[in-house]
Specification:
With 452 residues, the protein is mainly alpha-helical. The chain is 60% helix and 0% strand.
């Protein structure tokens, strides 16, 4: 369910859309490259990410987008995010009332809200094609920067022994990004865009870009991104042959899937948790998850309040639930568990509804989106959903995958939106003199995608 109606102008050909396109490129460069040193992982003694320059920069971008998108002239652009996302954001704000560190949580949630709002307004104004092309060109520029860092400044572009706690990271490529897993995620998204939305590039340039991105992804050693890239490409390819006429089959398929998940939870949940809690499981992530699950068992309904588990200083609950190296971390390496321990089971359910169920339903049930666009969006959506099973970025400020997650949701929102209905027949319409004229904004294209 969307709150915003389509804007009354052709957003793809006016100055406003161009300015918002530049704002999108700038925002992505800031998130991926520009603030790399400020995104680096911090130890638990840090209260984390309170840099005034960082916050001021995003506020300036937000203000620029408000002006560029003509939001004051068309206030409904402020309602671009779907209702399910608004409800999730509202619950996060409500959670500040029981937050362990409300001042820190307030700053973090304000930044998260501003970035979500910014991304949705940009995509609403620029439209699908311009937003996707701008993102791809920006990511190709980042790829070039990453190679420059690796070749000319290897001490900064490749993980060195002196800078990492995990010796397994030594030698992995990270380019201009603060960590190899971030670089891997950026490469993965670049590949998806090149495969499903890079047809406008020269064939040789597209092929070279794909090879270069795949090689860099391999050199990052990011296993999560490597596996998810392959899986997302497969699902995106399957969407190309998906026929929405078969959507009725989704209901029994969903019931069966949920039923199997419930049976698995009843019979194997505790065994699975015990296995994952062993230190060797998933490169140590199981140990982290065990701590989070222990806390969630005791505070399952409300949690700590948004942004109040990691990086809040000595008051963090992690100190009461473990004495291991987990104390040194700033993330749970699972976005859904981090949501569970901060905003409780209600927040987790709202998260799954807003970020998984609702967008997937729109993609699978829509009759207006083209298969080409749907293939890209479902592949990006699956990547962002899957990435948060081993990394944390859901509703986390300017985390790279979080920003692309919101961009994907915004693109899904405008791509699956029903076009406005034509005006009803006027008086004397029976004479044939008042037939509605063809409207290029509302007419579907040959592949079924609205031009709005």
């Amino acid at each position: 369910m969307m709150l915003a109606a389509p804007l009354p102008v052709d957003a793809n050909h006016d100055l406003s859309a161009k300015l918002c396109g530049w704002a999108l490129a700038g925002l992505l460069l800031i998130v991926i490259v520009g603030l790399g040193p400020l995104q680096a992982q911090k130890t638990m003694l840090s209260t984390g990410d309170g840099n005034i320059f960082r916050q001021a920069l995003y506020i300036l971008v937000f203000g620029f987008v408000i002006v560029s998108a003509k939001a004051l002239q068309t206030p409904r652009i402020f309602l671009s995010p779907p209702l399910t996302l608004w409800i999730l954001i509202a619950w996060c704000w409500i959670s500040l009332s029981w937050s362990l560190e409300p001042s820190i949580a307030f700053r973090r949630l304000l930044l998260t809200t501003i970035i979500i709002w910014t991304v949705f307004m940009i995509v609403e104004r620029t439209g699908y094609e311009r937003a996707v092309r701008t993102a791809l060109l920006t990511l190709l520029a980042v790829l070039l920067i990453n190679y420059v860092m690796v070749v000319l400044f290897p001490h900064a572009g490749i993980h060195q022994a002196r800078e990492v706690l995990d010796a397994g990271l030594v030698g992995d490529w990270k380019g201009a990004l603060p960590q190899k897993n971030f670089a891997g995620a950026v490469c993965a998204i670049t590949i998806l865009l090149l495969i499903f939305a890079g047809g406008w590039l020269q064939p040789y340039l597209r092929l070279i870009s794909i090879i270069a991105t795949v090689f860099f992804l391999y050199k990052t050693g990011s296993k999560t991104s490597l596996a998810l890239t392959f899986g997302s490409l497969v699902l995106g390819g399957l969407y190309l042959s998906y026929d929405p006429k078969f959507r009725a089959l989704l209901i029994p398929a969903t019931v069966i899937t949920v039923g199997l998940a419930v049976l698995f939870g009843q019979f194997y949940w505790m065994d699975a948790i015990y296995t994952l809690s062993q230190g060797s499981a998933l490169t140590g992530r199981g140990t982290i998850w065990g701590v989070l699950i222990s806390y969630a068992n005791d505070h399952w309904l409300l949690g700590t309040g948004y942004g109040s588990f990691w990086n809040i200083g000595v008051n963090s609950p992690v100190y009461y639930y473990t004495s291991t190296w987990v104390r040194l971390l700033g993330t749970g390496h699972n976005g859904y568990l981090d949501i569970l321990v901060t905003v409780g089971v209600i927040g987790l359910l709202l998260t799954v509804l807003a970020l998984v169920v609702a967008p997937l339903s729109r993609l699978l049930w829509s009759r207006t989106i083209s298969r080409r666009s749907g293939a890209l969006l479902i592949s990006m959506l699956i990547f962002c959903i899957g990435h948060n099973f081993t990394e944390s970025s859901v509703m986390d400020r300017d985390a790279i995958v979080q920003v692309f997650f919101m961009m994907t949701l915004a693109l899904i929102t405008i791509s699956t939106r029903q076009p406005p209905e034509a005006p009803g027949p006027l008086y004397f319409a029976w004479t044939g003199r008042f037939k509605p004229l063809p409207n290029s904004r509302l007419a579907p294209s040959q592949d079924g995608e609205s031009k709005a």
